[in-house]
Design goal:
Blueprint: E1 2-7, H1 13-25, H2 35-44, E2 52-57, E3 61-71, E4 79-82, H3 88-91, E5 98-99, H4 104-114, E6 123-129, H5 133-144, E7 149-159, E8 172-173, H6 184-201, E9 205-208, H7 214-225, H8 242-256, E10 261-267, E11 272-281, E12 284-292, H9 301-316, E13 322-323, H10 331-334, E14 339-348, H11 353-376
Parallel strand pairs: 4-6, 12-13
Antiparallel strand pairs: 1-2, 2-3, 3-4, 3-5, 6-14, 7-14, 8-9, 9-10, 10-11, 11-12
Helix pairs in contact: 2-8, 4-5
């Protein structure tokens, strides 16, 4: 196999065609490396302009890794290949490469061998799956190439595995707020939230707007109307930035054209209580963005909306996994989902003796830094 390193804005139409085919069959699908997401981001968002791509090829495209070359971390004096540049670190919840399942070990070995030539001796691989076939290929490849690997962070993230055969969706659905995997106490608390919300908002219904282009405008308007539309309160509503607003709209247009958007609204009698959009790539649904009506926050509108979305997808796409892309920091929201998958941040040293030496002293250097900071904060 051979490798090719290019700027993300330099791909050809032939590249895109082969890339889309790889995204659909990848051993570990990743919506953020689907060209419909990544190339739209490169074309529409200036923060994505420095993204580079590592292609692994033979007679076909076998692997794709997106990266930048930057400081290994904020106060490091040296640079590294990183999957978490300024754009992906902010907008992408998964950074793992697309890898052909027919040759996963060979592809990953080729990637690791090529990383030093990409600009640095260390590689920072963030938001990687910490289990499954890609993890197995990564750890086996690093071992066979004798590349030291430091596991920096490992956390269990929310997930919903495929369960059974799906049923055809309906346009208007009775929202399902029951969580079969939850404790009886949690289910009772949820039913209390539902009763309180219905007293204020009226009878609730779930509306599937996946095929409606007008959903985009309604979502943006709802998001900016709440606290996220107030920059002084830390709000980052997309409508506050014309570039981000256009980027979001064109992402949805790309995926909607292929039937790979799930756009849902939880509606009361007069107001939309909650709105969410997920994207599908390689047979896996991935949570993209959601928002809720501030006026119903006291009734846990966001929690109820996530439950309704989960149950909808477990019914209509039960044969496909759903990754809500939640940071495990949000423990209460994470607990809504029935399964877990580990997410890992890794640092590898494929670039020779100097990189290996840096990796070797890194845990002690960081521990000393943290101790010093703790003392200064007293």
């Amino acid at each position: 196999m051979r490798t090719r390193t290019i700027r993300a804005d330099s791909v050809t139409e032939a590249d895109v065609e082969r890339w889309r085919a790889l995204a659909s069959r990848a051993v570990e699908p990743n919506v953020y490396l689907d060209p419909r997401w990544l190339l739209t981001s490169v074309r529409e968002h200036p923060d994505a302009a420095d993204l580079r791509l590592l292609f692994v090829e033979d007679d076909d495209l076998r692997g794709v890794l997106a990266y930048t070359v930057e400081r290994a971390w904020a106060d490091a004096p040296f640079r590294a290949v990183s999957t978490a540049g300024r754009f992906l670190a902010t907008h992408a919840e998964r950074h793992h490469p697309l890898v052909d399942p027919a040759a996963s070990h060979a592809v990953v070995e080729t990637m690791l061998t090529a990383l030093p030539d990409a600009g640095a001796g260390l590689a920072v691989l963030r938001k990687m799956p910490g289990d499954g076939p890609l993890w197995d290929a990564l750890t086996a490849s690093a071992d066979s190439l004798r590349i030291p690997m430091l596991e920096n962070i490992r956390r269990a993230a929310a997930y919903s595995a495929a369960t059974r055969d799906a049923v055809a969706p309906e346009d208007r659905l009775e929202p399902d707020f029951e969580l079969a995997h939850a404790s009886s106490r949690s289910r009772k608390r949820t039913r209390g939230y539902v009763r309180a919300l219905e007293r204020d908002a009226g009878e609730l219904r779930l509306l599937d707007r996946s095929d409606e282009p007008a959903f985009t405008e309604d979502f943006l308007a709802m998001q900016v109307a709440g606290w996220k539309g107030d920059a002084e309160r830390g709000g980052l509503a997309m409508r506050l930035d014309p570039v981000t607003e256009r980027w979001f709209s064109r992402i949805l247009t790309q995926f909607r054209a292929d039937g790979d958007v799930c756009a849902l609204e939880l509606q009361g009698e007069e107001d939309t209580v909650y709105s969410t959009v997920s994207l599908r790539s390689g047979g896996v649904w991935a949570g993209f963005l959601d928002t809720y009506h501030d006026g119903y926050a006291k009734h846990s509108a966001g929690t109820l909306g996530r439950i309704a979305e989960l149950n909808h997808l477990r019914r209509t796409s039960a044969d496909q996994p759903f990754d809500p892309n939640l940071d495990p920091f949000y423990a209460a929201s994470t607990n809504l989902y029935p399964d877990r998958r580990d997410r890992v941040d890794l640092i590898l040293a494929p670039g020779g003796l100097r990189a290996r030496a840096l990796l070797g002293v890194m845990p002690r250097a960081r521990a000393a830094r943290d101790t010093l900071r703790a003392r200064r904060s007293r």
